[in-house]
């Protein structure tokens, strides 16, 4: 926290190290033991032996079946749960994106939840190819209320959930394994009986052994098999068995082993849609889901941008675009990620992080000079490949350093890919002028400009916009009209000294004539580098010219933009000479000789 320009600390809570460096650590690791009570958290999670595991070698080549739980699991985690209008907006977005399974609510939790499900059904708002899911704990009165909510739906899935982990059995419910099994089977029977009373609805069933990842594997398997038997799971009427990491407690590889163990042992496996529901308590929900799919799962539940209890559910947008980034069709439309994000933010009233994968404001942005240079070169290479193949750049294989996907494929543009601050280098500065103003600066000019930009950013302590960079470039390299300048003499442009003496008329030979004239007057100028190109920025094409000179013992660059190639070349030369010759800003000592000698326009 900063106050009045001075640093002050929050109340001191940092405790000193609790000991010396352990002898077991290598010499290059000087870290000392912390005072944090880490020994409290030694927890053994259930593990399974899968010595011939196959998941490490698997690669995802197809999208899983996605199920959004934004309207249930995500909604119940909001400080202010969504009202019907916001839920409807989000439901429509999910459908438009391509979700075919959407968990729309927890009908027994509140009247609002119940009414929303009824609204979707009674107003015929559910497309025929979309299955709505409703969640219910394994309690008779809640199951009955839940079943009432979907009456009249064309297709609906009842999601039955019962916690199976030992800590929950002991602390939350005070029951043993047998009681959990009997409760679950009884609930499954009730669901089936009530479903039979609704013959016009195509009813599907889902069961989640809540906290599966902390449940004894043999017990979880026993319960799941009992449920699929009760519901008579078959290939033409499959049951979804959903394995939640209700509280993420282990590394993703441990969960992958648990999933593969279940995948191999589930009875009626061809009649089971094996689903995952990862939470993000350890920050590895995406990895957990991806390895779980490699281990045999078919389906993933989660929320757009990872909303959910505590640290949230797995982010389905990230998972889908991870597939996209390796050439797999995600079967969800995220081509306008900013609109999707804005809608979700509006509905949930929770902002998406600036650094959120694929969707955050900064995720396609580089401030670092080395990153900017690599991105700039990569984007130019893509353009070169496209031009050589006579294809649109948006159709050639994407291979740009630091950018896993083309921002344009998710509705972004390149304007914010490179942003300039004191950490930026020549590549970033050059990219800004190229992308926004069509200028292809020579490397030496990039270096000189980047030094000025960094100095300016250091003084200001803030990011420079593309306009800031342009104004700095123009002021320093393009608009240096002292001491030499172009002036109008009737209908003719001439190069003039500070006193107005004319050195050279403007024509195709102006540059060599001017250089010769300066040489004869004792003010020699050496042109070290010259280049020009058509600038594609702006409403009309112009010529961009760049000149590097040595004059008065100093080297400098100049630049110009003009509709006339000749005028642009002369203006760039004059800017370079004026910059090199100035001892300090505004000084003209080097050109004093020009105004003390007679000057004629005829010949050099």
From TrEMBL:
Subunit record text: Homodimer.
Functional pathway: Amino-acid biosynthesis; L-leucine biosynthesis; L-leucine from 3-methyl-2-oxobutanoate: step 1/4
HAMAP family tied to this protein: LeuA_type2
Please list the cofactors this protein needs.
Answer: Mg(2+)
Note the PANTHER family from the entry: 2-ISOPROPYLMALATE SYNTHASE, PTHR46911
Q: Which residues bind Mg(2+)?
A: 73, 277, 279, 313
**Does the keyword Magnesium belong to this entry?**
yes
**InterPro entries xrefs:** AIPM/Hcit_synth_CS, Aldolase_TIM, IPM_Synthase, LeuA-like_post-cat, LeuA_allosteric_dom_sf, LeuA_N_DRE-TIM, PYR_CT
| Boundaries of every Pyruvate carboxyltransferase domain copy | 64-338
Indicate what this protein is called per its UniProt record. Answer: 2-isopropylmalate synthase
Q: What is the superkingdom listed in this entry's lineage?
A: Bacteria
Region entry Regulatory domain: which residue ranges?
480-604
Catalyzes what?
Answer: 3-methyl-2-oxobutanoate + acetyl-CoA + H2O = (2S)-2-isopropylmalate + CoA + H(+)
**UniProt keyword terms in alphabetical order:** Acyltransferase, Amino-acid biosynthesis, Branched-chain amino acid biosynthesis, Cytoplasm, Leucine biosynthesis, Magnesium, Metal-binding, Transferase
Instruction: List where this protein forms a coiled coil.
Output: none
Entries under NCBIfam families matching the protein: PRK03739.1
Summarizing the function annotation, the protein's role is: Catalyzes the condensation of the acetyl group of acetyl-CoA with 3-methyl-2-oxobutanoate (2-ketoisovalerate) to form 3-carboxy-3-hydroxy-4-methylpentanoate (2-isopropylmalate).
Query: What is the enzyme's main class?
Result: transferase
Give the UniProt family note: Belongs to the alpha-IPM synthase/homocitrate synthase family. LeuA type 2 subfamily.
CDD domains for this protein:
DRE_TIM_LeuA (cd07942)
Where does it live in the cell?
A: Cytoplasm
The record's GO molecular-function terms, alphabetically, read:
2-isopropylmalate synthase activity
EC code(s) of this entry: 2.3.3.13
Q: Which SUPFAM superfamilies match?
A: 2-isopropylmalate synthase LeuA, allosteric (dimerisation) domain (SSF110921), Aldolase (SSF51569), post-HMGL domain-like (SSF89000)
Kindly report the protein's main subcellular placement as a broad class. Answer: cytoplasm
